[in-house]
Amino acid sequence: MGTRPQPKLLAQGKPRMLGGATRGWRVRLYAPGSGSNKYQVYFKAPAGEGEPWKRVLRRAASEEARWIFAQAEGALSGARVDDHSWRSSSRISR
């Protein structure tokens, strides 16, 4: 049995060391895999007060996935992200 192909990385945010990470991580947006039409957005989020951050995976259609990516990146950088700010982002391929 062969190995599963890696999803294609479309965009990634800046490197972060939040949540007590010992290794840097980024918000990432991946293209749909074969046999799927959902994009994947990976990021880390606080699990609770004093708890370590946990990895989060969100799957969504193209436009919604771009919005989730922009929201996660904006929230982690402390910036306010409105509903349409991701459209002008040069980091996201169309």
Question: Which key phrases capture this entry?
Answer:
94 residues; alpha+beta; 4-stranded antiparallel β-sheet; 4 strands
Please explain how this structure is put together.
A four-stranded antiparallel beta sheet has the order 1-2-3-4. The protein has one helix spanning 62-77, and strands spanning 9-12, 28-30, 39-45, 54-60. It is globular, with a radius of gyration of 14 Å. The chain is built from one helix and four strands. It is of the alpha+beta class and 94 residues long.
Spans of at least 5 consecutive residues with low confidence: 83-94
- Percent helix, as a range, is 10-25%
Mean pLDDT: 79
| SS-derived structural category | alpha+beta
Dominant shape: globular
Distance between the termini: 34 Å
The succession of helices and strands, N to C, reads EEEEH
**Strand element count:** 4
- CA gyration radius, whole angstroms: 14 Å
Number of helices: 1
- Sheet-strand content, in percent, reads 15-25%
Which strands sit side by side, in order, in the main sheet? Answer: 1-2-3-4
Largest sheet, described in full?
4 strands, antiparallel
